[in-house]
Design brief:
The chain is mainly alpha-helical. It contains 9 helices and 3 strands, in the order αααααααααβββ. The chain folds into 2 domains: 170 residues, no CATH class; 73 residues, no CATH class. The chain has a 3-stranded antiparallel sheet with strand order 1-2-3. A hairpin with an 8-residue loop joins strand 2 and strand 3.
Protein backbone atom coordinates (compact mmCIF):
# COMPACT_ATOMS: atom_id res chain seq x y z
CA UNK A 1 0.00 0.00 0.00
CA UNK A 2 1.51 3.39 -0.98
CA UNK A 3 2.52 5.77 1.75
CA UNK A 4 0.17 8.69 2.36
CA UNK A 5 1.43 12.13 1.44
CA UNK A 6 0.29 13.46 4.81
CA UNK A 7 -0.47 11.23 7.82
CA UNK A 8 -3.84 11.40 9.53
CA UNK A 9 -5.53 9.83 12.53
CA UNK A 10 -3.54 8.61 15.49
CA UNK A 11 -5.46 10.96 17.76
CA UNK A 12 -6.20 8.25 20.33
CA UNK A 13 -2.54 8.19 21.31
CA UNK A 14 -2.22 11.95 21.81
CA UNK A 15 -2.16 13.48 25.28
CA UNK A 16 -4.60 16.21 24.20
CA UNK A 17 -7.28 13.71 23.13
CA UNK A 18 -6.79 11.51 26.19
CA UNK A 19 -7.04 14.48 28.53
CA UNK A 20 -10.13 15.72 26.68
CA UNK A 21 -11.68 12.25 27.12
CA UNK A 22 -11.20 12.40 30.88
CA UNK A 23 -12.72 15.89 30.92
CA UNK A 24 -15.73 14.77 28.88
CA UNK A 25 -16.43 11.73 31.07
CA UNK A 26 -15.90 13.68 34.30
CA UNK A 27 -18.17 16.51 33.11
CA UNK A 28 -20.95 14.08 32.20
CA UNK A 29 -20.85 12.51 35.66
CA UNK A 30 -20.38 15.88 37.40
CA UNK A 31 -23.53 17.27 35.80
CA UNK A 32 -25.42 14.06 36.51
CA UNK A 33 -24.56 14.22 40.23
CA UNK A 34 -24.52 17.93 41.09
CA UNK A 35 -26.74 19.81 38.60
CA UNK A 36 -30.43 19.74 37.76
CA UNK A 37 -30.87 17.62 34.63
CA UNK A 38 -33.46 20.12 33.37
CA UNK A 39 -30.98 22.99 33.52
CA UNK A 40 -29.78 24.38 30.22
CA UNK A 41 -26.32 24.64 31.77
CA UNK A 42 -26.08 20.83 31.88
CA UNK A 43 -26.58 20.54 28.13
CA UNK A 44 -24.13 23.37 27.45
CA UNK A 45 -21.40 21.91 29.66
CA UNK A 46 -21.74 18.38 28.32
CA UNK A 47 -21.78 19.62 24.73
CA UNK A 48 -18.73 21.83 25.31
CA UNK A 49 -16.84 18.90 26.82
CA UNK A 50 -17.90 16.65 23.95
CA UNK A 51 -16.90 19.27 21.37
CA UNK A 52 -13.47 19.59 22.94
CA UNK A 53 -12.92 15.86 22.45
CA UNK A 54 -14.66 15.19 19.14
CA UNK A 55 -13.09 18.10 17.27
CA UNK A 56 -9.60 16.87 18.15
CA UNK A 57 -10.49 13.53 16.56
CA UNK A 58 -12.12 15.09 13.51
CA UNK A 59 -9.23 17.52 13.02
CA UNK A 60 -6.66 14.73 13.12
CA UNK A 61 -8.64 12.73 10.57
CA UNK A 62 -8.84 15.79 8.29
CA UNK A 63 -5.05 16.23 8.41
CA UNK A 64 -4.56 14.05 5.33
CA UNK A 65 -6.39 16.42 3.01
CA UNK A 66 -6.59 19.88 4.57
CA UNK A 67 -4.24 21.69 6.92
CA UNK A 68 -6.72 24.53 7.22
CA UNK A 69 -9.53 22.20 8.29
CA UNK A 70 -7.28 20.51 10.84
CA UNK A 71 -6.29 23.86 12.34
CA UNK A 72 -9.87 25.15 12.34
CA UNK A 73 -11.19 22.09 14.17
CA UNK A 74 -8.40 22.13 16.75
CA UNK A 75 -9.17 25.79 17.41
CA UNK A 76 -12.84 24.86 17.86
CA UNK A 77 -11.76 22.23 20.39
CA UNK A 78 -9.65 24.84 22.17
CA UNK A 79 -12.56 27.30 22.28
CA UNK A 80 -14.91 24.61 23.65
CA UNK A 81 -12.47 23.82 26.45
CA UNK A 82 -12.25 27.51 27.32
CA UNK A 83 -16.06 27.72 27.48
CA UNK A 84 -16.15 24.71 29.80
CA UNK A 85 -13.44 26.23 31.99
CA UNK A 86 -15.61 29.30 32.54
CA UNK A 87 -18.59 27.08 33.43
CA UNK A 88 -16.63 25.38 36.23
CA UNK A 89 -15.31 28.70 37.50
CA UNK A 90 -18.89 30.02 37.50
CA UNK A 91 -20.08 26.94 39.41
CA UNK A 92 -17.61 27.61 42.20
CA UNK A 93 -18.19 31.37 42.31
CA UNK A 94 -22.00 31.19 42.31
CA UNK A 95 -21.93 28.75 45.22
CA UNK A 96 -19.24 30.71 47.08
CA UNK A 97 -16.90 27.73 46.93
CA UNK A 98 -13.16 28.33 46.89
CA UNK A 99 -11.09 27.91 43.75
CA UNK A 100 -7.69 26.33 44.18
CA UNK A 101 -4.66 28.55 43.76
CA UNK A 102 -2.75 27.58 40.59
CA UNK A 103 0.39 26.92 42.64
CA UNK A 104 -1.40 25.44 45.64
CA UNK A 105 -0.74 21.93 46.88
CA UNK A 106 -4.06 20.51 45.61
CA UNK A 107 -3.66 21.92 42.09
CA UNK A 108 -0.04 20.72 41.92
CA UNK A 109 -1.11 17.23 42.97
CA UNK A 110 -3.50 16.99 40.02
CA UNK A 111 -0.95 18.44 37.59
CA UNK A 112 1.75 16.08 38.83
CA UNK A 113 -0.17 12.87 38.17
CA UNK A 114 1.79 12.17 34.94
CA UNK A 115 5.07 12.89 36.76
CA UNK A 116 4.21 10.42 39.53
CA UNK A 117 3.34 7.81 36.93
CA UNK A 118 6.67 8.31 35.18
CA UNK A 119 8.47 7.77 38.48
CA UNK A 120 6.51 4.54 38.94
CA UNK A 121 7.08 3.48 35.34
CA UNK A 122 10.33 5.02 34.03
CA UNK A 123 9.86 3.13 30.75
CA UNK A 124 6.77 5.24 30.00
CA UNK A 125 7.02 8.85 28.83
CA UNK A 126 3.50 9.81 29.99
CA UNK A 127 -0.01 8.45 30.58
CA UNK A 128 -0.64 7.71 26.90
CA UNK A 129 0.21 4.03 27.31
CA UNK A 130 -2.72 3.42 29.68
CA UNK A 131 -6.30 2.44 28.92
CA UNK A 132 -9.06 4.98 29.53
CA UNK A 133 -10.01 3.17 32.73
CA UNK A 134 -6.41 3.05 34.00
CA UNK A 135 -5.96 6.72 33.22
CA UNK A 136 -9.18 7.61 35.04
CA UNK A 137 -8.01 5.65 38.10
CA UNK A 138 -5.03 8.01 38.38
CA UNK A 139 -7.43 10.93 38.93
CA UNK A 140 -10.25 9.06 40.72
CA UNK A 141 -9.55 10.52 44.17
CA UNK A 142 -10.56 13.94 42.81
CA UNK A 143 -12.98 13.13 39.98
CA UNK A 144 -15.03 10.60 42.02
CA UNK A 145 -15.00 12.79 45.13
CA UNK A 146 -18.33 13.49 46.86
CA UNK A 147 -17.36 17.15 47.28
CA UNK A 148 -18.39 19.11 44.15
CA UNK A 149 -15.73 21.74 44.86
CA UNK A 150 -12.99 19.10 44.67
CA UNK A 151 -14.32 17.76 41.38
CA UNK A 152 -14.76 21.20 39.84
CA UNK A 153 -11.30 22.36 40.89
CA UNK A 154 -9.66 19.18 39.60
CA UNK A 155 -11.43 19.62 36.27
CA UNK A 156 -10.23 23.22 36.06
CA UNK A 157 -6.68 21.89 36.40
CA UNK A 158 -7.25 19.28 33.70
CA UNK A 159 -8.85 21.78 31.32
CA UNK A 160 -5.87 24.10 31.73
CA UNK A 161 -3.60 21.16 30.90
CA UNK A 162 -5.67 20.32 27.82
CA UNK A 163 -5.54 23.96 26.70
CA UNK A 164 -1.77 24.01 27.10
CA UNK A 165 -1.45 20.85 24.99
CA UNK A 166 -3.79 22.19 22.30
CA UNK A 167 -1.95 25.52 22.15
CA UNK A 168 1.32 23.67 21.49
CA UNK A 169 -0.34 21.43 18.91
CA UNK A 170 -1.88 24.38 17.07
CA UNK A 171 1.38 26.37 17.10
CA UNK A 172 3.30 23.41 15.64
CA UNK A 173 0.71 22.94 12.87
CA UNK A 174 0.80 26.64 12.01
CA UNK A 175 4.58 26.59 11.74
CA UNK A 176 4.48 23.44 9.63
CA UNK A 177 1.95 25.07 7.30
CA UNK A 178 4.18 28.14 6.90
CA UNK A 179 7.24 25.99 6.16
CA UNK A 180 5.73 23.29 3.96
CA UNK A 181 2.44 24.68 2.67
CA UNK A 182 -0.94 23.00 2.70
CA UNK A 183 -2.08 19.73 1.20
CA UNK A 184 -2.71 21.11 -2.30
CA UNK A 185 0.79 22.61 -2.51
CA UNK A 186 2.40 19.40 -1.26
CA UNK A 187 0.34 17.28 -3.66
CA UNK A 188 1.31 19.43 -6.65
CA UNK A 189 4.98 19.35 -5.66
CA UNK A 190 4.84 15.56 -5.22
CA UNK A 191 3.22 15.17 -8.64
CA UNK A 192 5.89 17.26 -10.32
CA UNK A 193 8.66 15.45 -8.44
CA UNK A 194 7.24 12.11 -9.64
CA UNK A 195 7.28 13.36 -13.23
CA UNK A 196 10.85 14.47 -12.82
CA UNK A 197 11.83 11.01 -11.54
CA UNK A 198 10.13 9.35 -14.51
CA UNK A 199 11.91 11.71 -16.87
CA UNK A 200 15.28 10.91 -15.28
CA UNK A 201 14.68 7.16 -15.62
CA UNK A 202 13.87 7.48 -19.33
CA UNK A 203 16.66 9.60 -20.77
CA UNK A 204 15.95 8.43 -24.32
CA UNK A 205 12.53 10.02 -24.38
CA UNK A 206 13.59 13.42 -25.73
CA UNK A 207 10.08 14.71 -26.14
CA UNK A 208 9.52 14.22 -22.43
CA UNK A 209 12.80 15.91 -21.59
CA UNK A 210 11.87 18.88 -23.72
CA UNK A 211 8.77 19.58 -21.62
CA UNK A 212 10.30 22.15 -19.27
CA UNK A 213 6.94 23.06 -17.68
CA UNK A 214 7.26 20.10 -15.30
CA UNK A 215 10.62 21.16 -13.88
CA UNK A 216 10.78 22.42 -10.31
CA UNK A 217 12.90 25.59 -10.48
CA UNK A 218 15.60 26.38 -7.92
CA UNK A 219 15.34 29.45 -5.73
CA UNK A 220 16.73 32.46 -7.61
CA UNK A 221 18.26 33.82 -4.39
CA UNK A 222 19.87 30.84 -2.64
CA UNK A 223 19.60 27.98 -5.15
CA UNK A 224 17.64 25.65 -2.86
CA UNK A 225 14.61 23.72 -4.20
CA UNK A 226 11.30 25.56 -4.33
CA UNK A 227 7.84 24.32 -3.37
CA UNK A 228 4.49 25.25 -4.84
CA UNK A 229 2.70 27.77 -2.64
CA UNK A 230 -0.45 29.88 -2.80
CA UNK A 231 -0.42 33.61 -2.02
CA UNK A 232 -2.50 34.32 1.11
CA UNK A 233 -2.62 38.11 0.90
CA UNK A 234 -1.90 41.08 -1.33
CA UNK A 235 -2.86 41.66 -4.94
CA UNK A 236 -1.87 38.10 -5.89
CA UNK A 237 -4.10 36.39 -3.31
CA UNK A 238 -5.10 32.91 -4.50
CA UNK A 239 -2.39 32.71 -7.15
CA UNK A 240 0.22 29.97 -7.02
CA UNK A 241 3.97 30.51 -7.22
CA UNK A 242 7.22 28.70 -6.51
CA UNK A 243 8.51 29.73 -3.07
CA UNK A 244 11.87 28.90 -1.56
CA UNK A 245 11.80 25.79 0.67
CA UNK A 246 13.99 27.69 3.14
CA UNK A 247 11.23 30.25 3.86
CA UNK A 248 11.11 32.34 6.07
CA UNK A 249 14.93 32.54 6.10
CA UNK A 250 14.86 33.04 2.34
CA UNK A 251 11.98 34.74 0.51
CA UNK A 252 13.02 33.88 -3.03
CA UNK A 253 10.12 33.20 -5.41
CA UNK A 254 9.49 32.24 -9.03
CA UNK A 255 6.24 33.04 -10.86
CA UNK A 256 4.39 30.22 -12.54
Amino acid sequence: MPKKLRPSGGYRGTASFQTATIIYDATYWFCEKFLDARSRTVDQMVQAARSGRQNIAEGCRAAATSSQTELRLLNVARASQEELLLDYEDFLRHRRLGQWLPDGAAARAVRDVPKVYRRDRPDQADLTGLTDQERWARYAEWLDNDDPAVRANALICLINQANFLLDRQIAALEQNFVNEGGYSEQLAAARLAARERRRSSNNNDRSDRSDQTDLIPPCPKCGKPTVLRTAKSGRNTGKQFWGCSAYPDCRGAVDL
